[in-house]
Amino acid sequence: MRTLFSLPSNLLPDEASPEWMNKGDNGWQLTAATLVGLQSIPGLLILYGGSVKKKWAVNSAFMVLYAFACVIFCWAVWGYRLSFGDKLVPFWGKPNVALDGEYLIAQAFLGKFPNATMVYFQGVFAAITLILIAGALLGRMNFFAWMMFVPLWLTFSYTFTAFSIWSPTGFLAKMGIIDYSGGYVIHLSSGVAGFTAAYWVGPRLTQDRQRFPPNNILLMLFGAGLLWMGWTGFNGGDPYEVNVDASLAVINTHVCTAVSLLTWLLLDIVFFRKPSVIGAVQGMITGLVCITPAAGLVQGWAAIIMGLCSGSIPWFTMMVIHKRSEVLQKVDDTMAVLHTHAIAGSLGGLLSGIFAVPKLNHLFYGSNDKYIGLFYGLADGRASAGLRQVGVQLIGILFVVVLNVVSTSIICALVQVIVPLRMSEEDMEIGDEAAHGEEAYAIWGDEEERLDPKYALPKTKAAGLVEMA
């Protein structure tokens, strides 16, 4: 009987590189996946850890570390096949494990590399989505509630969106939606889910909402740099082969991001008279997010226009609309994921429907002629096809928003039945010591005086950790 990890009996040593596999494509795909993984660990881990108050540095970083580990495990065991397996319903795959010896070394559903590579590549995308959601919840969510939220949301929200948009048999994929590398699946999903979860979890303490300075801006910038450079693999890996489209996606990504950062920076200078480092990072993120659904499908001039839009429109929604809206201000979105991911992702999706080049669509999607940006549809006398593309993009936005509001709300309600979503007021006053019995910055020799005995690690355990170090 074949076991879970068995290999085909007829696999010979020289078949470790079968004829269908392209070594260059496989090597790049593994590299791209690792770059995406580095965006989370350590990229967002240290970006979050440096962006919050000192008392929340450990908790914020640990939310990232836990989410990454939990998602990778759940993804390999059941998440991947729900997202990319055989169709069960138009928006979900059949439950099955990916950790099967024969399955892992067989050719992936796309690309000239094995399923093992695809499971890894898609797994780090799933992980960063949960980590982006964490950005909206920093500074008050009960860690035990977060531990339950992550696998539930991955299973009952992310897999629905991934299958619908990225699986060849998903209903939105069949409609012809354009989402090159996750503007919908990752960024719109995480932005909406994060904002929704923030509503259910509740706000930080009043003093934390009013004043929440970064404890280490240089550390935050280091994390932001890893995020930016890691996006080379994020967008460059999605053609699933080493080709000109991958190169185009990479340069478009960096050009759009640079323009977006500079646009946000100039707006800060014009209206606030100071060049803000934090603002520049926000502009960087919105640029990365906006170009993602279109990265390998638009020309360079369109990437510049998208950068101008991503540096200005989310700036306006964050700095003007949000501050004037009582409804929006009731939700405590710590890292502003609604603006940097949901709005920027939606913007990128709509602009993809306008600027996507038919020739590049053909290169990426194959022979299907239904993918055409409105700009080129008008120019080529195919206005109806271009308008249809914009309509499909809008349907995709509506689907992702509704799905994530509903699924995230249900998941939060279920978790709330078991453990509180929000930490107690007393524990939020203290932060890391209350949540983990540890703190980010302790002067050697003074930690026993500084740590509250109520929350500190047992001396025997602490001593053991020192000895191991």
TrEMBL record:
UniProt KW keywords: Ammonia transport, Membrane, Transmembrane, Transmembrane helix, Transport
Any GO CC annotation of this UniProt entry: plasma membrane
Record field: transmembrane: 28-49, 56-78, 119-138, 145-166, 186-205, 217-234, 246-270, 277-295, 301-322, 334-357, 394-419
UniProt domain Ammonium transporter AmtB-like: residue ranges: 28-441
UniProt cross-references to InterPro entries, sorted A to Z: Ammonium/urea_transptr (IPR029020), Ammonium_transpt (IPR001905), Ammonium_transpt_CS (IPR018047), NH4_transpt_AmtB-like_dom (IPR024041), RhesusRHD (IPR002229)
Pfam families linked: Ammonium_transp
Main location: membrane
SUPFAM superfamilies membership: Ammonium transporter (SSF111352)
PROSITE patterns: AMMONIUM_TRANSP (PS01219)
Subcellular location: Cell membrane
Superkingdom assignment: Eukaryota
Membrane topology value: Multi-pass membrane protein
Entry's Gene Ontology molecular function annotations: ammonium channel activity
Family: Belongs to the ammonia transporter channel (TC 1.A.11.2) family.
NCBIfam families in UniProt: amt
Protein's name in the database: Ammonium transporter
